Amino acid sequence: MAQYDEYDNNIEELTDGTDTMRVGEIGDLYVIDMELTPLGFAGVQNTDWTRIISFDKGLGNPIYRHGVRNNNWVIDNELTATGFAGTIGVDWANILTIPRV
After folding, report:
1. What is the side-by-side strand order in the sheet with 20-26?
2. What is the pLDDT of residues 56-87, one digit of tens each?
């Protein structure tokens, strides 16, 4: 069963109690960042935290979801008003798929 979290124009921090990730939009980019030290996102990039991936959010509507589908971590973007209720490749697109290790 797929599990998703949708967001629009915000940053979400995810933690398992040990590692902390930041996922969301900063300016014109969609980003995934990871803390490296206890100072984390309050500190210096590439010292206290690092950007894992970023890409232009101009694919469609600024509404994204991230979650788990078919044992992969995925990021999807809405393309039309029908959005995630519609058809992949028409109403929404998969932007990133990271296989489970």
Report:
1. 11-15, 20-26, 29-35, 49-56
2. 766 556 678 888 888 888 888 888 889 899 99
